[in-house]
Each structure stands twice: as structure tokens, then as C-alpha cells.
């Protein structure tokens, strides 16, 4: 396989992975991005090996990603001291260690926003869970997604608690102290 063909397959695989994490059909992604379902299918299947950058940009925007992420980069280059852009998309695609590092340096406002997004995603997944037959593969997949989002939400809540503790006068968090 030539280099550019391999790159097209990789873009398609990444696109499929991000779309599936959202639990969208190709048609849903196409509608949100303003492209045809045939285009999404062609990119994911590797039949469109060199998609137009405008198409990549539309698909990335619909998935709440940077275009570079679909193209195989990590998005805009970040220096070691830069903080992660906390978003639902980032949380769902980050490895556990990266996720925790991102939370460690985040502001209380960013953590609060991410917590709300994760709670909304958990609610969406719970509604979706009930739409599939009991015991089906789809239900099991969604249940794993709910478990992952719930774990991330708990980690964000813990980070918020300690962020509040650091900001309290004297470094104490009154909400963590027992009533005396």
C-alpha cells in the first residue's frame, strides 16, 4: 500500500473510532457535518483516500475535534507546560494517565464545566441504553460507556473537591471537615 493510501485508511479508522465513541451512525455524523453519508462511508472505508481538507474540517467540527486530530496529529502542538483543553471530546479520547494529568492542572471553572458535560453524557447514554433489547450487544457496549463516563465524572468531582480545598483560606476545605 502506498503512503497516501495508508494515510487515508488511518484517517478513516480514526473517523470511525470518534464517530462510534459518540454512538452516531454515519448518517448522523454526515447530517451534523453537512456532508453526504456516502462521503463519511467512503472515508471510513478507505475508498476516499485523500479527503478534501474542508470535509475533514466539517467532520472534525461536528465531532468537537481539531482537524489535525483526524489527520493523525495530536492537534495544535502543546508545550510541556500547557494545560489540556478540557472538553467532553478530550475526556472520551484521552488515555487514563493523560486524563488525570489534565485534571491536575485545570481550574475549578474548567473542572465544573467538564463535570457538567460528563453528567449530560451519562444521562444521554442512560436514555440510549433503554432503547436497545435487554441483554443485547448494544446494551452491553453502552453500559461500558456509562461505566467509563461515571468513572471520569467521579475523578473530576474528586479533583474539584481538592481544588476547592487548596483555594480555601488556610488550605482547608470546610466541606470535607466533619460537623463538630
Question: Could you walk me through the main structural features you see in this protein, from its secondary elements to its overall organization?
Answer:
The chain is mostly helical and 180 residues long. It has two domains: 3-71, Orthogonal Bundle (434 Repressor (Amino-terminal Domain)); 88-176. Helices cover 66% and strands 0% of the residues. It contains nine helices and no strands. Helix 1 packs across helix 3, helix 2 packs across helix 3 (37-44) and helix 2 (26-33) packs across helix 4. The chain is globular and about 60 Å long.
Summarize the structure.
The chain is mainly α.
- What general form does the structure show? globular
Helical residues, percent: 55-70%
Task: Tell me the total number of β-strands.
Answer: 0
Q: β content, as a range?
A: under 5%
Count of folded domains: 2
Question: Structural class given helices, strands, pairing?
Answer: mainly alpha
Main sheet properties: none
Query: What is the count of helical runs?
Result: 9
**What string gives the helices and strands in order?**
HHHHHHHHH
Radius of gyration: 19 Å
Could you name the ranges where pLDDT drops below 50 across 5 or more consecutive residues?
1-6, 74-83
Query: End-to-end span in angstroms?
Result: 71 Å
* Average pLDDT number: 79
Q: What characteristics describe this protein?
A:
single chain, 2 domains, 9 helices, 180 residues, 434 Repressor (Amino-terminal Domain), globular
Amino acid at each position: 500500500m502506498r503512503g497516501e493510501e495508508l494515510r487515508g485508511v488511518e484517517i478513516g479508522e480514526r473517523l470511525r473510532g470518534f464517530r462510534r465513541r459518540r454512538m452516531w451512525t454515519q448518517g448522523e455524523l454526515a447530517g451534523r457535518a453537512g456532508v453526504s453519508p456516502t462521503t463519511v462511508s467512503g472515508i471510513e472505508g478507505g475508498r476516499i483516500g485523500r479527503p478534501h481538507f474542508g470535509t475533514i474540517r466539517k467532520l472534525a467540527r461536528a465531532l468537537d475535534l481539531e482537524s489535525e486530530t483526524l489527520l493523525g496529529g495530536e492537534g495544535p502542538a502543546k508545550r510541556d507546560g500547557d494545560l489540556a483543553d478540557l472538553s467532553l471530546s478530550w475526556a472520551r479520547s484521552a488515555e487514563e494517565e493523560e486524563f488525570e494529568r489534565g485534571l491536575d492542572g485545570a481550574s475549578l471553572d474548567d473542572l465544573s464545566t467538564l463535570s457538567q458535560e460528563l453528567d449530560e453524557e451519562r444521562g444521554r447514554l442512560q436514555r440510549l441504553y433503554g432503547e436497545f433489547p435487554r441483554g443485547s450487544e448494544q446494551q452491553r457496549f453502552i453500559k461500558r460507556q456509562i461505566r467509563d463516563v461515571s468513572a471520569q465524572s467521579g475523578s473530576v468531582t474528586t479533583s474539584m473537591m481538592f481544588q476547592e480545598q487548596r483555594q480555601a483560606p488556610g488550605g482547608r476545605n470546610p466541606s470535607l471537615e466533619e460537623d463538630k
